[in-house]
Amino acid sequence: MTAVGIDAIEIWTGKLKLDLAETFAPAKGEAPEKYTKGLGLEASSFPDTYEDIVTMGANAAKRLMDRKGLSPDDIGRIDVATESAFDNSKPVSTYIAGCLEEVYDGDFHHANKGERKFACVAGTQSIDDAYNWIKAGRHRGRSALVIATDTALYARGDPGEATQGAGAVAMLVSEDPSVVELSTHQGYGSADETDFLKPNQQFPSVDGKRSVQVYLARMREALTDFESVAGRIHSDDYAYFPFHTPFPGMVRKAALLGFRHMTRDTEIEDELATEIGRQPREEEYEDWEAYEDAIRSYMDALKETDTYNDWYARAIDPTLTLARRVGNWYTGSVHVARASALKTAAETGRALSGEKLLVGSYGSGAQAEIHSETIMDGWREEVEAFDIDEQLARRYDLSFEEYGRVHDAHNHEKERELEEFTVPSGEFVFTGWGRMNERK
Ligand code: CAA
Fold this sequence. Notes:
By secondary structure, this protein is of the alpha+beta class.
């Protein structure tokens, strides 16, 4: 059977940077370590005032099409995943297609266009849609362009403000992919939740603490559901575990929970037993509270062991290197985590072809999805083409006052004359509502 999966990836970061330790922490009167150690973040990417979800998505897509030598005729669908859409009728993919048609011969009249919304999990759902479309044989030899693009901004003063970010990830889904083959093995954890909402409002209403618990609960369900299809997950079966990363500290919590789950009733649990005891079993406790206390103590001991820390350093930490520098990109976040792991492997000369990834996507509202992927032979060449380090180094470093003005500008004030902090060059820029985005 023909392999279907991700053939190419391009990442576009917002062109401004908010440094959390140097700029944000002093202005908030907080210790820098709250952000750098507690949340695990160094900086957020911010969009300049001429950037938005359309320009960032179109710029990532343009780079991808140019690098792969594609024309509109090679692409049979454009799916955009975003939770920052500004149009309740037209999908963002039509705006992005409009931009791309300005610069390529040919057009996307033949291409199906759509917009997916389920908070941050929508990027992965769009990839699933593309996979299903190809597997169903409806693609007529064409590939799908999937773009996850978001400006993840919170209201000023919201605890989520430290986890903001902005950027786009463009991915080409096709037959005989170069980066990863998607498998049919998937697991879900889904429930109606109200911890993170944006009902017709620009910034989310968030119960941050509860959102962390909901993330963990849905991921736990998705793990169990995945195992019902694919069998037991073992910590050594996967090279990396790229997970949705609202902030690296969230993944640290999920990783600990996942490691306990994966090592239960295995040789690893037996080995650890001499050091920290066996994992508590529910039937050994009189009530749920006592059981939960015992689990908490076990987890506290587990996170101090070399066994756990070695696994974390090998399989989790490399997925977080980009997130630390860019913050939360909502729909793009888990795809940044995959890119981050592959990039680290390429830099350290690690051989990965044929190895597997366990990918954990999550969207508030809420749904977790876990699936596995197999790394293909062409992964290294694709990943070495990333220019994300150069893009990150070029970001304009905002002062706190400037940050406030940029935040206001993105709060629907884009019609007035706005100061710009960087000079656009060979890229799509926002020129006004209802007008075509131009390439400067
Ligand atoms: N040194 C070291 N660590 C410190 C510290 C210091 N000086 N000060 C605080 N910390 C630690 C805290 O102990 C805490 O770590 P633990 O959770 O491991 O205990 C961490 O830093 C954060 O501190 P607080 O919990 O006090 O931070 P907060 O309450 O101000 O904000 C938050 C945390 C509620 C998660 C907030 O960032 C938030 O609302 N974020 C947005 C919602 C979010 O991202 N939720 C994640 C799940 S939902 C999801 O994934 C979807 C999505 O993309 C939004």
